[in-house]
Write the structure tokens for this entry.
Amino acid sequence: MVLCLLAAGTLLLGYLNKARCTGPSFDEWGRSGPNYQERSYADVCYSDIQNLWIGRDIDRHVFPYVHGGIDSDGSLYGGVVEYPVLTGLLIWLGAFFVHTDAGFLLASALLMAPFGLAVAWWLGRLSRWRALLWALGPPLVFYAFHNWDLPVVACAVAAVYVMHRNDPPPDRAALRRRATWAGVLLGLGFAVKIYPAIFVLPLALYVLTSGSGRDWRGAARVVGAAAGTAVLVNVPFMIAGFEGWLASFEFQSRRQVDLSTNSIWFWGFRQWAGSDSFQDAMGIISPALVLLSFAIACWAGWWLRSRTGTFPWVQVSAAMLCGFLLLHKVHSPQYTLWLLPFFALVHVRWGWIVAYLLADAAMYVGVFRWLHLITSGESSGIYDGFTAQALMIGVWGRAALLVGLFIAFLSARSAVDPPPRAPSPVPREAGAL
């Protein structure tokens, strides 16, 4: 309860930070004024929630996906949003009774705050005091209401909680039941923001190798539960409006490597970002490297299992997420919320955590202050002031730390692992000094 109260205070600070961009006046579309865009960058209070009030028919209260699609230029229309269906449904609910971007931000915050509190509760039960990293973490202030990410984080953490909320299951049947429910939660996570689906493989490998022999049936149940849940959630939207449903996935597949993606591919190769050949290459290179990082993480987990007897599925999941964040062509700022629970769930050294949070803060403040310099016509080069320098420190510092964390997560003990046993004392021989 203490963790939940602390998290509630942090969530309130997160809302107040974003609410600085709302009002005091509103135009005929419910957009805050005056100078909404300039204020959102200059005051570092930008949020996708407020920004997308206009442009996706959210302000018109159009039910998502059913009547929409995507134009040849990549523009979405007819209520389609660029997110999976459960996030689209959450967006529609947040806009249902409101008529301004300020009301939309508040309603969305009220809808998502319980998920943030639930994460604090589950992490507290799993990792005790380390859950303060979530409840009091600066990323919760920066990103809790930056986008619609609290529900998907809740799905991922809930899956770990279902698996390890008490002592390990006493038999294979109990483990299968827990893992099946965890698979359902990861499938729901896919229907919210995709990324929890990558944890299905390490969970299945954990079930496969637990106990004596190989539990192929249990592993298959995990995969089937996750896939079946994702399909069941998506099918009604596919039937109601297949073109609109498909458009959300097509939008992401067409997404270019540009400033909005904020990934190493843009910052390292932005001089080529306008080239079609570069964009086509990124469509192959980025996912291929992401999949390679997944394979390396799972292989490392399999090797560790041969030494410890247990497949470290939580640590492998954390490492896979590091590979995704580093190598995917999109690295939105709020993705830090995805990684933050793993700092509580895996006992990595505090230096890694502090360094990553500092780099993330530098990136967060730096990118919006840098955008303010660009939109206001001021000098924004790397030699023109600390703003661009802080942004580069954040971007590349965070990238280097993700490489290190990939290894650190795999070599660390998780909060759900049994504590290491102290070595038994060696009895002295008679007459020994």
In short: Residues 428-433 have pLDDT under 50 and may be disordered. The radius of gyration is 23 Å.
